Known about the structure:
Blueprint: H1 11-20, H2 22-31, E1 36-37, H3 38-44, H4 50-62, E2 66-71, E3 77-82, H5 84-87, H6 90-102, H7 104-115
Antiparallel strand pairs: 1-3, 2-3
Domain HTH hxlR-type: 10-108
Keywords: DNA-binding, Transcription, Transcription regulation
InterPro entries: HTH_HxlR, WH-like_DNA-bd_sf, WH_DNA-bd_sf
Amino acid sequence: MEPDPFNRNCGSRQVIDRIGDRWSVLVVLTLADGAKRYGELAQRIDGISQKMLTQTLRGLERDGLVTRTVHASVPPRVDYELTGLGHSLVDLVAGLEAWATTHLGEVEAARARYDTR
């Protein structure tokens, strides 16, 4: 059977859900320039809770997009980094970021027009 994200039972829909999630997009963008520690990710991604960051990182790791490396030190140090598969997403999510920042004014104007109706 060919992947069909319009079919609710197709695994490709789960992949789209993962990579289309706002937190996943922001984690991938943050890791695009190299490995980061958990605290660095939490500091960079304003508004993400510890619970959501942990869930997002686990999901990205499970899907093979992020690696988690524990370093034997005191205190233990954990780094997160994009895999090759994760790096293949960078251009895609950077395009989303570029579109959102370029068209923000237009979207805000459309919202204002809609809300005044």
